[in-house]
Design a protein that fits this description.
Region (Disordered): 1-23, 721-743
Family: Belongs to the Mediator complex subunit 16 family.
Strand content: 15-25%
Oligomer: single chain
Subcellular location: Nucleus
Number of helices: 22
InterPro entries: Mediator_Med16, Mediator_Med16_C, Mediator_Med16_N
Largest sheet: 4 strands, antiparallel
Number of strands: 41
Distance between the termini: 63 Å
Domain Mediator complex subunit 16 C-terminal: 835-936
Strand order of the largest sheet: 6-7-8-9
Shape: globular
Helix content: 25-40%
C-alpha cells in the first residue's frame, strides 16, 4: 500500500484508537454507593501510617500498615460504611449504614486499636445515616503557629536552594491540647459533634441544620471544613438538587482562666453548644455543560452526585487568599446493556464562597427620627460564585488536597492519577522541570496503571497509595521511575532532582508530623549509589539541622535534638538487608547510634524524673531508680553499653593489623583519608566514625557519666548502712533518705554493681579518651577556621556553619575532613590516646570477650550461629528472647509473651503488661521504637506481624 491509502485507512499518522476497557460490574456498584449518599469510603490511610479497610462483607474492619519484613527487609503492605482518620492519625471513626459511630484509638501499636466509643449508644435509624464527617484539626502547640511547606527546590548553580511558605491553621479547636472532635451531618439534617471530655470519655452535642418536612429535603452528601474566622462551613446537597451552605460556631462552655473561680482549662468539664447560620443556597445542577454529554442517555446519571468536597481557604504563594470552594462531582457510566461504545466521563463543578458588602440607599437615612444619628453599616453578605466546570473522560474516585491545599490530587477508576492546580484546575506536576522541583511525580516518577480499582487512599507523604481492586483485594502502589537510570551522583541533573524531591517530601512529612515510611522503598531501589548519603545531606540543608556538638558541654540539647533520630533512622532502614544479612556501612553506624541514643534517654529520664509510686500514698512521687523492676529492666542496657565501649576499643586496637600494606596511621604522611575511608567502608568498620562524630561522642560521654552515677547509687544500695538510693537523684520527691532499700531493690542493684565491676573497660578510662578527643578536635577547628573578633558575629556564624558541614558528613558515614589527619595519628601512634587505654585493659579479657549482645559481628559464621540459636534480641531490655513456636500460645500453662515488632526496622521487644507505675512509665517511653518507627503487635506464637 502507498502512503495515501495508509492515511485513508488509519488517519493522518495518528495510529489506531484502542477502545477503553469496559466498566466492571463492581465499578457500577461502587458508583451507585457514591450516588446514594456521602461517607462511604472503605479505605483510609492514617498520618501514623495505619491503613484501615472495610472487608467486602461489610462486617469486619481490617488494619494494615507498611512494614519491613525481618527476613529480607522488603516493605509490603499487609454492614460498615465509612472510615475517617483524625488529623493526628491516632483516632479512627468507623461508621455504619445507620449512622452509628465507633471510635478507636491507637497508642503504641498500629494493629492494636482500643475501642473508646461504642456505637451501641447511637439509635438505629436510616434517617440518622451520616453523609458527611470531619475531624477538627488539633490546636497547634504554639498558639497561631502556621503550617509550614517546604518547596520548591530551585536550582542555583550546582546545588538547590529550598524555598518555604506558610499557611494559617484554621479552627475551631478542641480546648484540650492534642485532642480532636468528630463533626457529622446526618440524612435528616442533624449536625453532630462527638468529642472527648477532659477525662477521655466521649460525649456528644447536636443541633438541627435543616428542618426536614419532606423527602425532597433529605440530605444526600455533605462536606465540612474550617474557615479563617475559627468557624465551620458546612455544605450539603439535598434530594431536590439544592446546594446549601451553613456556618456553625462551637462554644465549648468554659470559663476563661482569668475569671474569678475559673479552673485551668484542662480541668473543666466541657459543656459545648452549637450555633448555626445559613450562608447561601443554589442548585448543584444548573449550568451543566449539556453540549459535552448526550442528554438522552446520561440525563438520569448526571442528575446524581457522587462526591461533594469542601476546600478551605488557602494562601497562595503571592499572599492572595483563595476563597473556600465547594467541589461537586457527577460521574457517568453507560448503561450496562448498551450495544454501542459509549465513553465514561466525570463532570466537576465548583463554587466559591464569597462575601460582598451590602449598601443602603441614602434615602433610608432620612427616615430616621434623629437626624444626627449614625447607623451601623450592614454586615457582609455571603454568596456562591459558580466557577467553570470541566469534564474528564474517566470515573473520578477520590480528591485529596496536598501542599497546603494548593494542589488537588485526583484518583481515577482506571488506576491513573492527576495533579491539578486548586485555583485554575489546570494539570500540574507535568513539566519535568529539573530546575524547579516540587514532587517526584513532576520529574518522571509515575504510578503503574495496571488494573482498575474501586477505592483509593493516598499516603501521608503523598508518594504512594493503596487501592481496593475489583476482586476486593488491597494493593499498595508506589511511585516508580520507569524511563531509565536516574544517574549515580549529583553531576547528573536527574539524580540531583530526585535527591531534592525526596528531601522535600521527607521534610514536609516531618513538619506535618506524619509518617514517611513509604519513601524508604523508593530510595532503596538506588542503594547501589550514594543516594542515601546525598539525601540526608540535602535533608539536613532543608531542615537546617544542627549536628555540631564539638563545643557543647551539656548533653541536654543533644538528647532533645529529635532530628538526629530522624536521620539515623532513615540511614539505618536503608542499610538493613535482613536479620541474618550484613548491614551496609552507614546502616550499621546509624543502627548503633540509635540504640545508644535510646539508652541515654531511658537512663536520663529514670534518674531525673519522679513518678507516682505504688505505695499507700498515690500522690507521693518517687524516683524510678527506687523500683527494683526498673533497675532490672535497665541492667541489660548497662551491659550493652559497656560491651559497646569494649568493642569500640578492640576494633580500634586491631585496626592497624587489618589495613592494606603501606598504610600507616601513626604518621601523617603514611595514609590518605580517601583510602582510609574506602577501607573502613569495605570492612564495615564504624568505630572510628563513632568516636570522631561530635554527636555520637556526645552520646558516649553522656552515657559514661550516667553509668558512673548509676554505679555510685548501686554501691550505696548494697552497702548495709547506705540509706535510700533515691537521695542521689536531684528531682526525686518524697524519698526518705533514712529508709533502707528493700531486699528486691538491693538484689537489683547488686546485679548492676556486678556488671560494672566485671567490665573489660572501666567507665573512667573511656571517658578520659572521649574528653581528650573532644579537646583535640576543638583545637583543630580553632586552627582551620578563621578567628573572630569580639564583636564579629558573622564570622562566628560562618564558623558554626563550616563545623556543622564537617560534622554532618562524619555523622552520616562520609569521609573525614583533611584537618582530622593529626587527630587520627594522635589516636593511633605508639604513645597516643589508644595506648593509654590499652594499659588499662587485660588483653586476655578483651581477646576472649563475647560481643554477641551487640549483634555487630556480621561474618557468615556469626550470622549462622545467631540464626541457629533460635533467639531474638529484646531491644528494650537488651536480653535474648526465645523465638516462639508457631501455634503455641501456652508454655507450661503460662501465656507466651507477645512480641512487638517495629514496622520500620523490624526490631523486637516484648509487649510488656505491668501494673507497677514506675516500670509502666518507663515502658511508655518505648511507645515507639528506638528508630522512631511504630510498632506492630505480633500474634501469640508468631514472630512476624
Amino acid at each position: 500500500m502507498d502512503e495515501e491509502m495508509m492515511d485513508d485507512l488509519f488517519g493522518d499518522g495518528g495510529g489506531l484508537s484502542i477502545p477503553s476497557r469496559p466498566p466492571s460490574k463492581e465499578l457500577y456498584q461502587r458508583l451507585d454507593d457514591l450516588r446514594r449518599g456521602g461517607c462511604c469510603q472503605g479505605i483510609a490511610w492514617s498520618n501514623w501510617g495505619c491503613i484501615a479497610t472495610i472487608a467486602s462483607s461489610g462486617a469486619i474492619l481490617e488494619l494494615r500498615n507498611l512494614r519491613c519484613h525481618p527476613e529480607d527487609a522488603n516493605l509490603d503492605g499487609g454492614p460498615l460504611k465509612h472510615l475517617c482518620w483524625s488529623t493526628s492519625g491516632s483516632e479512627l471513626a468507623v461508621i455504619d449504614t445507620a449512622g452509628r459511630v465507633n471510635i478507636l484509638s491507637l497508642f503504641s501499636s498500629l494493629n492494636k486499636p482500643t475501642l473508646h466509643r461504642h456505637c451501641q449508644m447511637d439509635p438505629i435509624d436510616e434517617l440518622c445515616g451520616i453523609v458527611g464527617c470531619h475531624w477538627l484539626t488539633p490546636a497547634p502547640y504554639q498558639a497561631n503557629r502556621p503550617a509550614q511547606l517546604n518547596g520548591p527546590a530551585v536550582k542555583e548553580g550546582s546545588s538547590y536552594k529550598y524555598e518555604t511558605s506558610a499557611a494559617p491553621v484554621y479552627g475551631p479547636f478542641h480546648p484540650v491540647l492534642g485532642k480532636s472532635a468528630l463533626v457529622c451531618v446526618t440524612t435528616n439534617g442533624t449536625l453532630r459533634i462527638i468529642y472527648p471530655q477532659v477525662n477521655g470519655k466521649y460525649a456528644e452535642v447536636h443541633t438541627e441544620l435543616e428542618s426536614i418536612v419532606s423527602s425532597d429535603d433529605l440530605i444526600t452528601h455533605a462536606a465540612i471544613g474550617s474557615d479563617r474566622n475559627q468557624t465551620l462551613l458546612i455544605a450539603f446537597a439535598t434530594t431536590s438538587k439544592q446546594l446549601r451552605v451553613v456556618r456553625a460556631v462551637i462554644d465549648w462552655g468554659q470559663q476563661k482562666p482569668t475569671e474569678r473561680g475559673a479552673q485551668p482549662v484542662p480541668q473543666q468539664p466541657l459543656n459545648p453548644s452549637i450555633r448555626t447560620r445559613h450562608v447561601a443556597v443554589t442548585s448543584w445542577l444548573h449550568d451543566s455543560p449539556s453540549d459535552n454529554i448526550n442528554s438522552l442517555n446520561t440525563e438520569s446519571s448526571m442528575m446524581q452526585l457522587s462526591h461533594l468536597e469542601f476546600l478551605p481557604s488557602s494562601l497562595e504563594p503571592g499572599g492572595r487568599l483563595t476563597p473556600p470552594t465547594i467541589v461537586a462531582v457527577r460521574s457517568h457510566l453507560p448503561p450496562s446493556m448498551a450495544h454501542y461504545n459509549q465513553e465514561v466521563h466525570t463532570v466537576v463543578d465548583r463554587w466559591e464562597i464569597r462575601e460582598k458588602m451590602q449598601t443602603v440607599h441614602p434615602a433610608f437615612e432620612q427616615l430616621s427620627s434623629r437626624r444626627n444619628s449614625i447607623g451601623s453599616p450592614p454586615q457582609a453578605m455571603s454568596f456562591l460564585k459558580k466557577l467553570d466546570s470541566f469534564t474528564v473522560n474517566k470515573i473520578l474516585l477520590a480528591i485529596q488536597p496536598i501542599n497546603l491545599g494548593r494542589v488537588l490530587f485526583f484518583m481515577y477508576s482506571d488506576s491513573s492519577v492527576e495533579y491539578r492546580d486548586r485555583t485554575t484546575m489546570a494539570e500540574t506536576f507535568t513539566d519535568n522541570d529539573l530546575d524547579r522541583v516540587w514532587h517526584l511525580s513532576q520529574i518522571g516518577f509515575t504510578y503503574p496503571e495496571d488494573e482498575p480499582c474501586l477505592q483509593v487512599a493516598l499516603s501521608p507523604s503523598y508518594c504512594s497509595m493503596v487501592q481496593i481492586r475489583n476482586d476486593g483485594k488491597v494493593k499498595w502502589k508506589q511511585l516508580d521511575y520507569a524511563i531509565g537510570d536516574i544517574g549515580s551522583d549529583n553531576s547528573d541533573p536527574q539524580y540531583a532532582a530526585v535527591v531534592a524531591a525526596l528531601a522535600l517530601s521527607c521534610s514536609s512529612a516531618v513538619m506535618r508530623n506524619v509518617a514517611y515510611d513509604d519513601l524508604l522503598p523508593i530510595a532503596a531501589k538506588y542503594s547501589n549509589t550514594n543516594l542515601t548519603f546525598d539525601w540526608l545531606v540535602e535533608l539536613s540543608s532543608v531542615l537546617k539541622v544542627p549536628l555540631d556538638y564539638s563545643e557543647e558541654q551539656h548533653a541536654d540539647l543533644l538528647i532533645r535534638n529529635s532530628t538526629i533520630q530522624l536521620f539515623h533512622s532513615i540511614q539505618s532502614s536503608l542499610g538493613f538487608r535482613g536479620e541474618f544479612e550484613p548491614r551496609s556501612f552507614p546502616g550499621k553506624l546509624s543502627w548503633l547510634v540509635l540504640q545508644l541514643r535510646n539508652i541515654v534517654v531511658l537512663v536520663t529520664m529514670a534518674a531525673n524524673l519522679g513518678v507516682r509510686g505504688d505505695g499507700p500514698n498515690p500522690n507521693e512521687k518517687t524516683s524510678p531508680l527506687d523500683d527494683p523492676e526498673v533497675i532490672n529492666a535497665l541492667a541489660g542496657s548497662v551491659r550493652w553499653t559497656l560491651d559497646l565501649m569494649a568493642w569500640l576499643t578492640d576494633t580500634l586496637l586491631t585496626l592497624s593489623s587489618t589495613l592494606p600494606p603501606g598504610m600507616d596511621l601513626t604518621n601523617v604522611k603514611g595514609f590518605s583519608l580517601p583510602e582510609l575511608h574506602a577501607h573502613l567502608v569495605k570492612t564495615n568498620t564504624v568505630a572510628l566514625h563513632l568516636l570522631l562524630s561530635s554527636s555520637t561522642r556526645g552520646f558516649l560521654t553522656a552515657i559514661c557519666r550516667r553509668l558512673s552515677h548509676l554505679d555510685w547509687i548501686a554501691r550505696r544500695a548494697i552497702t548495709p548502712s547506705a540509706g535510700n538510693t533515691g537521695s542521689g537523684t536531684p528531682n526525686t520527691q518524697g524519698s526518705n533518705p533514712d529508709k533502707q532499700p528493700s531486699p528486691a531493690l538491693r538484689n537489683a542493684y547488686l546485679h548492676i554493681a556486678t556488671i560494672t565491676t566485671n567490665t573489660i573497660l572501666r567507665i573512667k578510662t573511656i571517658d578520659t579518651l572521649l574528653s581528650a578527643l573532644t579537646t583535640s578536635i576543638k583545637d583543630v577547628y580553632s586552627t582551620i577556621l578563621p578567628k573572630s573578633q569580639t564583636s564579629d558575629k558573622s564570622t562566628d556564624k560562618a564558623n558554626e556553619k563550616a563545623r556543622n558541614a564537617y560534622e554532618i558528613k562524619i555523622a552520616f558515614g562520609g569521609p573525614f575532613p583533611e584537618a582530622f589527619k593529626p587527630i587520627i595519628v594522635e589516636l593511633f601512634r605508639a604513645d597516643g590516646l589508644l595506648a593509654a587505654v590499652r594499659e588499662d585493659i587485660e588483653p586476655a579479657k578483651l581477646f576472649f570477650a563475647d560481643f554477641s549482645l551487640l549483634e555487630v559481628n556480621e561474618d557468615k559464621a556469626s550470622l549462622a550461629k545467631r540464626k541457629a540459636s533460635g533467639m531474638t534480641m529484646d531491644c528494650f531490655r537488651k536480653t535474648w528472647l526465645p523465638n516462639p513456636k508457631k501455634g503455641m500460645d501456652l508454655v507450661e500453662g503460662k501465656q507466651v509473651p507477645r512480641w512487638r515488632r517495629c514496622a520500620r526496622c523490624a526490631a523486637v521487644m516484648v509487649d510488656v503488661l505491668t501494673e507497677r507505675r514506675a516500670l509502666q512509665w518507663l515502658i511508655m517511653q518505648q511507645r515507639r521504637c528506638f528508630c522512631s518507627g511504630y510498632w506492630n503487635t505480633v500474634a501469640a506464637g508468631e514472630t512476624v506481624a
